[in-house]
Amino acid sequence: MSHSIHVGFLNPNEFSIQMALAVAEKKIVTAKNIHVSDPHKSYVDLCKEHSFNWYPQDADALIETEIAVIVQPKREFATELAFIYTMTRGKIILAMSPGIDCTYVQERVAARTAVVSATPVQNELGEWEATLEYSEKFPEYMKAACADIVGSVCKVIS
Q1: DSSP string spanning 2-58?
Q2: Taking the CA of residue 112 as centre, how many other CA atoms within 13 Å lie in the half-sphere pointing to its CB?
Q3: Which one-letter DSSP state was computed for residue 86?
Q4: What is the mean pLDDT of residues 32-61?
Q5: Which end of the chain is more exposed for a tag (fewer CB within 10 A), N or C?
Q6: pLDDT tens-place string over residues 74-125
Q7: How far is CA 4 from the centre of its chain?
Q8: Which helix (DSSP H) or strand (DSSP E) does residue 119 occupy?
């Protein structure tokens, strides 16, 4: 299902870039509505090739997005949020990292930031699966979009 929303992939790594590509390929969101912040310029050419919007800073991408996807190990997650926490009000943070739940993220972002936590794990067949946890008062109308974004690379487990 195609959603007319803007999705940002902040400070991407290989997994989140694969997710951005899958989101575009499966037409969950059009490529022109995908925003990638990449301060290390690792993915500039890939962004241009796929018509993604590229930004040198997380804050620049966050301004343009409704859902900000962050895929980082727990030890780096708080640092990632430290640069954007004042700008998250009214946004959705999709945190995709083992060991990170909604409470962990909400303690590190502005009030009235909606959070969905996706915990990806590989099953015995090597396929990715994820469970989703939504913060209190998460907007119901955005749950399908978040599940579709995660579902682009993982089987979503209810």
Answers
A1: -----EEEES--HHHHHHHHHHHHTTSS-GGGEEEE-TT-SSHHHHHHTT-EEESSH
A2: 3
A3: G
A4: 94
A5: C
A6: 899 999 999 999 999 999 999 999 889 999 999 999 999 999 999 999 999 9
A7: 16
A8: strand 114-122
Whole-angstrom Cα distance, residue 55 to residue 48? 11
Q: What is the rounded distance in angstroms from the CA atom of residue 16 to the CA atom of residue 94?
A: 11
Token pair of 53 as six digits: 């919007």
What separation in angstroms does the CA of 44 have from each of 12, 47, 53, 152?
11, 5, 9, 22
Beta bridge partners of 121: 129
Q: What are phi and psi of 43, to 5 degrees?
A: -120, 20
Taking the C-alpha atoms of residue 24 and residue 108, their distance in angstroms, rounded to an integer, is: 29
Alpha carbon 89 to its chain centroid, in Å, reads: 16
Chain-centroid distance, C-alpha 111: 19
